[in-house]
Amino acid sequence: MVTTNRSRVVVVGTGQVGSAVASSIVLQGLTNELVLINHNPGKARGLAMDLADGSEFLGRFVSIRHGDWDDCSQADIIIITAGPRPVEGRNRLDGLMAAVDIVTPMLDRIRESGFDGILIMVSNPVDVLSWYAWKRTGLPRAQVIGSGTALDTSRMKTIIGEVTGLDPRTVSGYVIGEHGDSQFIPWSTVSFVGKPFARFLADNPGRYPGVSLNGIENATRRRGDEIKNRRGGTSYGIASTVSGLVKTILWDERRVIPVSTLIDGEYEYGERDVFLSLPIGLDGNGANEFTDLHLTAEEMERFHHCAEVVRSHCALIADRL
Ligand SMILES: NC(=O)c1ccc[n+]([C@@H]2O[C@H](COP(=O)([O-])OP(=O)(O)OC[C@H]3O[C@@H](n4cnc5c(N)ncnc54)[C@H](O)[C@@H]3O)[C@@H](O)[C@H]2O)c1
């Protein structure tokens, strides 16, 4: 008798991001079953058909179909990607009210379904919406995460890889805080080929002209806007990131990834009731076990600024709870 569980992932929203996330999950064969939900069911059905048409050439069979909210009750992971289409020149927080209008009925249907898996918020502004989703669904804190600065961290590693010509996976470290303009890189956490990256740059004067820590941080922060300006939106980077989270959770890998999660009095961070990204252990039970980063005083100040930004936007939607 087979004793392994069948896994089910539900993707809500089948626009650019939802389609790319679904595709990444299917191409990697991460789940037994993938269910797509869209307010226009025809679009979800079309995407399911399109993705399923490559089955013959994939490494692992994934059962793909469109579905509805009843499918959420037996889901292991639900990923919410529905939201107002990102508009050039507007930041992620600008679309908050429209985003809340879109996700509120979804979160209610998810709660009513009895879902007890891991909810991954991707829609922006992701930190504010993750907090809202946690409150609105009543799920335990470990089971609600936002993709947060996992993408920004990957962007930072990609940029360092491009600058040095080495594999980005050589970099260890994090972008933390808000997935937005106040995000920052605590350079005290970033190491490269066995030493702090700041030391690596200092040890190689003249080898990387024009490269600075500030420059890398700004390029990381601006990268999403730059992609949006060039191709109208971002989708593949976030898709790889979210499917990485799915793999870590479903396969119980216990990777440490900075995702947006409830910060409520942990270690020296001194924050409560706010969702921000810090590196946290991810596994089949969700997000547990923070790392104490021992931020410098300046980094801590920047972390508190992120909390202020996110909290002030949560206050704007508190009456929607
Ligand atoms: N967290 C991240 O790092 C990250 C990265 C990229 C995009 N995003 C966010 O992902 C979201 C989707 O972006 P996209 O480029 O796929 O946009 P898109 O316009 O291509 O897709 C939006 C999706 O939302 C659905 N939708 C829109 N209005 C709806 C409504 N009233 N009810 C139900 N569904 C509705 C649409 O049907 C579509 O499936 C946005 O919030 C965007 O900011 C997040």
UniProtKB/TrEMBL annotation:
It catalyses: (S)-lactate + NAD(+) = pyruvate + NADH + H(+). InterPro entries: L-lactate/malate_DH, L-lactate_DH, L-lactate_DH_AS, Lactate/malate_DH_C, Lactate/malate_DH_N, Lactate_DH/Glyco_Ohase_4_C, NAD(P)-bd_dom_sf. Keywords: Cytoplasm, NAD, Oxidoreductase. The gene is ldh. Pathway: Fermentation; pyruvate fermentation to lactate; (S)-lactate from pyruvate: step 1/1. Catalyzes the conversion of lactate to pyruvate. Residues 149-312 form the Lactate/malate dehydrogenase C-terminal domain. Its EC number is 1.1.1.27. SUPFAM superfamilies: LDH C-terminal domain-like, NAD(P)-binding Rossmann-fold domains. Residues 8-146 form the Lactate/malate dehydrogenase N-terminal domain. Belongs to the LDH/MDH superfamily. LDH family. It is found in: Cytoplasm. The active site is at 179 (proton acceptor). NAD(+) binds at residues 13-18, 38, 43, 122-124, 147. Substrate binds at residues 92, 124-127, 152-155, 234. This is L-lactate dehydrogenase. It is an enzyme of class 1 (oxidoreductase). Homotetramer. GO terms for biological process: glycolytic process; lactate metabolic process. GO terms for cellular component: cytoplasm. One of its GO terms (molecular function) is L-lactate dehydrogenase (NAD+) activity.
